[in-house]
Amino acid sequence: MAIGVRTVDTAGAGGTSWVAVEAIRASGQDPAAAALGTELWDWGVPTAASVSLLSDLNLQIIATGGLRSGLDVAAAIALGARAGGLAAPVLKAWKAGGYDGAVEYLRGVIETVKAVTFLTGCRTPAELASAPRVIGSTLRAWQEGAR
User: Fold this and answer.
1) How far is CA 43 from CA 19, 36, 79, in A?
2) Is-contact 72 61, C-beta < 8 A?
3) pLDDT digits (tens, 9 = 90+) for 35-83
4) pLDDT digits (tens, 9 = 90+) for 96-129
5) Stated pTM of the model
6) All residues at 6 or more sequence positions from 124 whose CB lies less than 8 Å from its CB, including other chains
């Protein structure tokens, strides 16, 4: 923040694992590196924990990494994200139905965020950040461990 950073992409664990990518790349050339990559395949801070732990820093947070649905985007916004990014499901929808399939999928994401906003008594998705929420034990452990 001291150098002007105002927006952060969490790229939390749960999405593309770059450790896994490197493990696969090393599999035919460096067995030790491939074994290490396989062992650490799922290493990282989950997206929900990343967003939650950054939420009090007055940054604009983009939640990415493992988001698969509008409900995931709404949950990320409730935890303090400004927006959510979903790559894999959009690519899957595009592969199944081309441009129209991707657009249809994204419309569904938007409709889900709207529904969650309504169901929580909020007028806008931004209000989700101040709505009451239930935090599960795994996320609670991340929050408490960081303090």
Assistant:
1) 8, 11, 22
2) no
3) 998 898 888 889 999 999 999 899 999 999 999 999 999 999 999 999 9
4) 999 999 999 999 999 999 999 999 999 999 999 9
5) 0.85
6) 117
